Amino acid sequence: MNDWFFRGDYGVVPTNYAIMAMGLLLAFVCGHAVAWAYMFTHTGLSYSRSYVNTLIFMPVMVTLVMMILANNLILAFGLMAIFAMVRFRNILRDTLDTACVLAVIVIGLACGTLKFTSAIIGCLSAVGLIFYFWFTSFGTRHHYNLILNIQWDRTPQELEELRAVLRRHCRNILCASQHFQESDGTLDLSYHLRLCDPARSQELLDELRTISGVRAVSSLPADDQSEL
Q1: End of a domain among 117, 136, 155?
Q2: Which secondary-structure segment (H or E) carries 170?
Q3: How many domains, the chain?
Q4: What is the span of the domain harbouring residue 171?
Q5: C-beta separation of 214 from 158 below 8 A
Q6: Which DSSP string do the residues of 75-107 spell out, in sequence order?
Q7: CA distance 58 to 37
Q8: In a structure prediction context, what are the per-residue pLDDT tens digits for the chain, which is 228 residues long?
Q9: Does residue 187 fall inside a structural domain?
């Protein structure tokens, strides 16, 4: 059985499985490095855990593609033809979905070039990565406990008193939106908060209502809505 497995690639170029494993592992480690850099440097509001996972998934799959091609020009043109035939009538909104499409194309290409062992290894690698992301929740940053909406009827320059209260109750504060209502002169503020003690959220709301200038306060649990 073991002899069949390690002689299962019947392509033109023999497969060096030690080098293949080293290449896949290196791609996995390098993808992690890029993903960590993206996580710590990202400052926008559109952070997506799925995109971070894709940064690790993609180099592993591309490495497998290049190993299967093995500098064969005919196989390279065949790969281009396969991608040219792929059409999607619905838009893949999740980047990890696109990576999974690439994975099954690569596995199909491995089978089509008689590299059966490479196809098995590629399939196990793809499935292992998917379960790895699911089990470890890799890419998830700190989540927010509470979404807080406030109507402020004083000037924006006088928000320091409000911010001081938020800093006393929260570990992390993100001002998600700030909109001025010209009709009544109020400022609509929306904050994503990570509370020091989620069980004391009502104390925060009660204290905010005592601040001069706070016309209305509403809140709802954030759960993991900040992660896509």
Answers
A1: 136
A2: strand 170-181
A3: 2
A4: 146-221
A5: no
A6: HHHHHHHHHHH---SS---SHHHHHHHHHHHHH
A7: 16
A8: 557 777 777 766 777 888 888 888 889 988 888 888 888 777 665 677 888 888 888 888 888 887 877 766 677 777 766 666 655 555 666 677 778 878 887 887 777 667 888 888 888 888 898 888 888 878 776 677 888 999 988 888 888 888 899 999 988 888 888 888 877 778 899 998 888 888 888 898 899 988 888 888 988 887 645 555
A9: yes
**Rounded Cα–Cα distance for residues 52 and 15 (Å):** 31
CA angle, 208 then 212 then 217, to 5°:
35
Q: Kindly state whether residue 86 falls inside one of the protein's structural domains.
A: yes
Q: Which of 64, 106, 204, 104 is nearest to 148 (CA)?
A: 204
* Token digits of residue 68: 């299967």
Contacts of 133 (CB under 8 A, 6+ apart): 53, 57, 96, 139
Q: In which residue are the tokens 């900040």 written?
A: 226
> What letter would DSSP give residue 210?
T
Phi and psi angles of residue 192, each rounded to the nearest 5 degrees, phi first: -105, 125
Distance between CA 144 and CA 150 in Å, rounded? 17
Measure the CA–CA gap between 141 and 227, rounded to whole angstroms. 8
Query: Is the domain of 11 the same as that of 124?
Result: yes
Six-digit token string for 143:
């989540």
